Amino acid sequence: MKTMDCKDVLENLSGYVDGEGSDELRQALEEHISRCRRCRVVFDTTGTMLKIVTDAEPFEVPLSVSARLYARLENVLSEE
Amino acid sequence: MQKDERPKHDVPDKDDFLLVASVLAGDRRAFEPLVRRHERRVFRVTLAVLGNIEDAEEAMQDTFVKAFRHLEQFRKESLFTTWLTRIAINEAIQKRKTRKNFVPLAQAEDAEKNFTPRRYEPWKSNPEQLYGKQEIHRFVEEAIQSLPEIYREAFVLRDVEELGAEEAAEALEISVPALKSRLLRARLMMREALAKKFEEPPTLKTKIVHTAMDAGTAVAMRLMRAAGR
């Protein structure tokens, strides 16, 4: 089986998360992180970070920004 | 750790199509609910590209005005969100090009292209229960805003708006490999930025154990050799 070093794992981390890569590549990455503490931490916490970002639903439209948007659209919608 | 593939902004597309049809049939007021459904997404996209609220606001307004005026060009083969997001990114990118200090980003150097992790402490379990919702919301926004422009837009389009890699690359006028490379660094930078809030502070004992584990067999071999002497 193909083996990976820490640098390879890092370069393939994002692709792995997105479900990319061949089975062989994915297995090699899994094999590496099962025996490398640092890579395992980076891998696990990247996953946790993505979950936190998804759950947080960042960036709401400020009320004043929203109000000005509707005011401008009001003008556009009432144009003949 | 496979990412959940479900679209998060699951506004029923059927309703979008019905609203678009109403507007095109002459009911202009039907445009308002369309705006309500999508204003947040449009704002996020323009903010990601432009980086400040004032410019993002202007680009958002222009996006909706343009969408309204060109609604007849929307084809049902694509989702309304996809069509609208394309307009929003385009408006934001055009606006960015008018800035005095504009550097074409496609050629801009990826200053952080060699960014590697610096923090290797595991995070606490259930990190989302450590803080209030509002606090986490703020941490996430600050972390995103701290990313350099090219990483921020790649991250928001892919991991917040959940656009496909091809779609995001095309919208940002860069190649798919360039997008993927930026996304990787953006994710690593995001991890690093949030680590301060969520990681387990190491005890002396874990520090020693981790150091030994990280050094791996090299240290073990040396210890064994030393013991044999």
CATH topology of the largest domain in chain B: Arc Repressor Mutant, subunit A
Tell me the radius of gyration of chain B.
23 Å
Count of distinct structural domains of chain B? 3
Provide the β-strand percentage band of chain B.
Answer: under 5%
Distance N to C terminus of chain A: 69 Å
Mean pLDDT over the residues of chain B: 86
The radius of gyration over CA of chain A amounts to 22 Å
Identify the overall geometry of chain B: elongated
Total helix count of chain B?
10
Task: Tell how many strands the DSSP assignment of chain B holds.
Answer: 0
The SS-based structural class of chain B is: mainly alpha
Oligomer: heterodimer
Low-confidence stretches of chain A: none
Average pLDDT confidence of chain A is 93
Order of helices and strands of chain A: HHHH
State the shape of chain A.
elongated
Helix content of chain B: 55-70%
Describe this structure in words.
The complex is a heterodimer of chains A (80) and B (229). Helix content of chain A is 75%, strand content 0%. Chain A is built from four helices and no strands. In chain A, helix 1 crosses helix 2. The relative contact order of chain B is 0.10. The N terminus of chain B is likely disordered. The interface between A and B is large, with 42 and 56 residues.
